[in-house]
Amino acid sequence: MDSARLQRWVLLLLLGVLLLLPAGAALAQSGGGYDLSWWTAEGGGYTWSTGDGYSLGGTVGQADAHTQALTGGGYTLAGGFWPGAAVQYTIYLPLVLRSYP
Prior knowledge:
single chain; alpha+beta; two-stranded antiparallel ribbon; 4 strands; 29% helix; 16% strand; flat
């Protein structure tokens, strides 16, 4: 290997190391005093129910399942998983049987 080629490889190696150093510093950062225990990423979509001056919104397929209900003033609001439709399974025999023509 000639010296120009070796010098190019050393320069590329140093450039790669210099590009990766900020990533290590970013991973080493730590925050203080943050509490994300009350926030969730929901399953997508939203529904709204309104009537008699009240409005209630929620997401379909909610990712959190709190068993403790929120109560106050004669009202109760419970969270958790929304029930889904029953899944119907169909067995396709041509895909299961090996000797199918």
